[in-house]
Design a protein that fits this description.
This protein has a domain of 120 residues: Tetratricopeptide repeat domain (Serine Threonine Protein Phosphatase 5, Tetratricopeptide repeat, Alpha Horseshoe). The chain has 7 helices and no strands. Helix 5 runs parallel beside helix 7.
Length: 181
């Protein structure tokens, strides 16, 4: 079921692409599904309760994702980060896991935590190389590297974006910003 469009916020975030699952990623129920780290570098390692044994419903996953996304887009960054971390605890291999990882990076970027945001965007690039959020993560990784003063590495991320996802919204945004051709 597609996620409805949500109005743009003052964070100037790349657009959300609803309803697209990670490409080529085994789902949690498939044999050989990779085990994914549940905490980002910006999240303190705290003992958490084991996930419940109940079966996760697609409606519950979508509702949890939408709640986290809505909080983030409404400018409630701390709440959005917490909800996205909770979401990944509950649905580490779910349909929206790549999106959640990406939006954690956006929240960290909005807070000015650029090294942590960069690590999160790189996590999306590494874990979901063919997912539609990879294009947005490459753009934001370049923007983050630029904020950190590494223009050479930023330019490399923009080149990778233009090579791998030339027709994406992120590539169009990079061209509009004048950071790529």
């Amino acid at each position: 079921m597609p996620v409805p469009a949500i109005p743009a916020s003052s964070l100037a975030l790349p657009p959300e692409h609803p309803g697209l699952p990670p490409v080529g990623q085994p789902q949690a129920s498939e044999p050989g599904a990779p085990q994914k780290a549940l905490a980002s570098p910006a999240t303190p390692q705290v003992a958490s309760p084991a996930p419940t044994a109940r079966a996760a419903s697609p409606q519950g996953e979508e509702a949890a994702y939408k709640a986290a996304l809505n909080a983030t887009l409404a400018g409630r960054t701390d709440e959005g980060l917490r909800l996205f971390h909770d979401f990944l605890q509950e649905y580490p291999h779910g349909r929206y896991a790549a999106n959640a990882d990406y939006w954690i990076g956006e929240g960290l970027y909005a807070q000015g935590k650029y090294p942590e945001a960069l690590a999160q965007f790189q996590k999306v690039n590494d874990a979901y190389p063919q997912h539609h959020k990879n294009a947005d993560a490459l753009l934001k990784a370049g923007m983050t590297m630029s904020r950190l003063g590494d223009r050479t590495a930023a330019a490399e991320k923009y080149r990778t974006l233009m090579t791998q996802f030339p027709n994406s919204d992120a590539a169009r945004r990079a061209r509009a910003m004048g950071v790529a051709r």
